[in-house]
Amino acid sequence: MKTILVVEYSQTGQLTAVLDALLAPLQQPDGATRVHREVLRPVPAYPYPWPFWQFLDAFPETVAGNPPPLTPLTVDSGSAFDLIVIGYPVWFLSPPPPITAFLRSAAGRRLVCGRPVVTVTACRNMWLMAQEQMKQLLAEAGARHCDHVALVDQGNAFATFVTTPRWLLTGRKGAFWGFPPAGVPTAEIAACRRFGLALREALQRDAEQQPGPMLGGLRACTVDPRLIASEKIGRRSFRFWARVLRWAGRPGTFLRRTLLAFYLVFLLSLIITVVPLSVLLKAALRPLLQRWLNTLQASFERPSGSATSRMACFHE
Ligand SMILES: Cc1cc2nc3c(=O)[nH]c(=O)nc-3n(C[C@H](O)[C@H](O)[C@H](O)COP(=O)(O)O)c2cc1C
After folding, report:
1. Nearest alpha-carbon partner for 308 in 225, 224, 220
2. Average confidence score pLDDT of the chain
3. Is 10's C-beta closer than 6 angstroms to any atom of ligand 1?
4. Could you identify the atom of ligand 1 that is nearest to the CA of residue 164?
5. Rg, C-alpha atoms of the chain
6. 3 state SS of 124
7. Contacts for 28-32: CB closer than 8 Å, 24+ residues apart
8. CA of 92 to the centre of ligand 1 (A)
9. Which CATH number fits domain 2-224+303-309: 1.10.287.110, 3.40.50.360, 3.30.300.30, 3.50.30.30?
10. Whose CA is nearest to atom 18 of ligand 1?
11. pLDDT per residue over 243-299, tens digit each?
12. 94: Cβ below 6 Å to ligand 1?
């Protein structure tokens, strides 16, 4: 029997639904696999829906990788699992604090050290920089990252710029005023079953002990090359501002709130002015940069990739 530890954090339940679909084939009564789900609980818990200022105030500590403590894990940190799945949403181009806390803790490091790890994310549309940090956290903990699944919200960048914050700040997810519903399409979530089927088949032939991905050919993660530059620039600017805001004081203090308000206005004016210009510039330069972008895309899509060659094999 193969044992699987699932480490997860989800506020609205979207990531939980993704993991439910993915894990269903691994939770069959045949006893071939046993799944333990470890839900991370930060202290204090983050609110959902988010009060506006609290949402912004979570930014500096998230980006700086300075998480709050977690309640003790329910799993014994000395357990040796055959496979570990880590499910996380993206917060401010970073892994959310509970996941950082887990991967930095002695118990978390002990659990993942030397183990194959599959990462699964569901976010608005920007997961590249967060996943790069996940790779680094996993490497520091001695884990072997073998696969990555990434799902993104429905609608174009403008639509999700409206629908995702509306969902997080009000709890309302439905379609409105011509905008699509917020979040990942339900059919995409249900289709995550294919990853569970592929993992079940891979575990049967001990593929988790071999180098290389188990979820290749299943359209596990597709990088949008148009977002690569924005993510890199955004991450750099976030890190600078996170340092300034942390210097300004603890969450909720007057100076920090004033600076946060200033940063928000600055960010929105950048989004309204610089982003449309950069879109035009990128479109103009695309023919020149195409080969370089293709290389970057392939590198960010590693290890699982966006190929679809095995989709038909894991359709049930
Ligand atoms: C504080 C916060 C910051 C977020 N930042 C990003 C982001 O930088 N990029 C992104 O694609 N999604 C971002 N999101 C959206 C989440 O990745 C995710 O789609 C949403 O929170 C629902 O996830 P969950 O309910 O499974 O936790 C953010 C969400 C929160 C709460």
Report:
1. 220
2. 94
3. yes
4. 15
5. 20
6. coil
7. 28/200, 31/1, 32/1, 32/2, 32/200, 32/203, 32/204
8. 7
9. 3.40.50.360
10. 123
11. 999 999 999 899 999 999 999 998 888 878 877 787 788 788 888 888 888 999 999
12. no
Q: In the predicted model, what is the mean pLDDT of residues 57-69?
A: 95
Q: Whose CA is nearest to atom 2 of ligand 1?
A: 91
DSSP helix/strand/coil, 309 = coil
What is the residue extent of each domain of the chain? 2-224+303-309, 227-298
Looking up tokens 């570990």 gives: 84
Closest atom, ligand 1, to C-alpha of 16: 26
Nearest C-alpha to atom 29 of ligand 1 is from which residue?
Answer: 91
CA–centroid distance, residue 201 to ligand 1 (Å): 31
The response to whether residue 18 sits with its C-beta less than 6 Å from ligand 1 reads no
Average pLDDT on 118-127 reads: 97
Q: Which range is least confidently modeled, 46-55, 150-159, 203-212, 260-269?
A: 260-269
For position 206, what pLDDT does the model report? 97
**Residue 316: pLDDT over 70:** no
